[in-house]
Design brief:
CATH topology: Quinone Oxidoreductase, Chain A, domain 1
Helix content: 10-25%
Structural class: mainly beta
Strand order of the largest sheet: 6-5-3-7
Number of strands: 7
Length: 105
Amino acid sequence: MLRAQYERRGPVPQDVIDAVQFEAPPLQAGEALVELVAAPINPSDLLTLTGEYGDLPPLPAIGGREGVGRVAELGADTSEIAVGQLVLLPRGSGSWSTHVVAQAA
């Protein structure tokens, strides 16, 4: 699994972000592992990398504020969604990643 992670912000977005390998943590009850299908690059994403956006996540951070994915796996006692279902990711979930763990609700 890969994600676009940045440890600092700077004036040139591509200079501060890197593709980093990671392993998804074990899923907890109510969580879903989502495989990304699409994630846009919006002006707000680029401004976040440069530090010019109003709502900045703490560092280190994963790029991408929006995305759509398909549920790959569910945590125990998770019934709000189904494996294989297409879902919209919660805003700010770090969608520049091959996979994201999110709350199923």
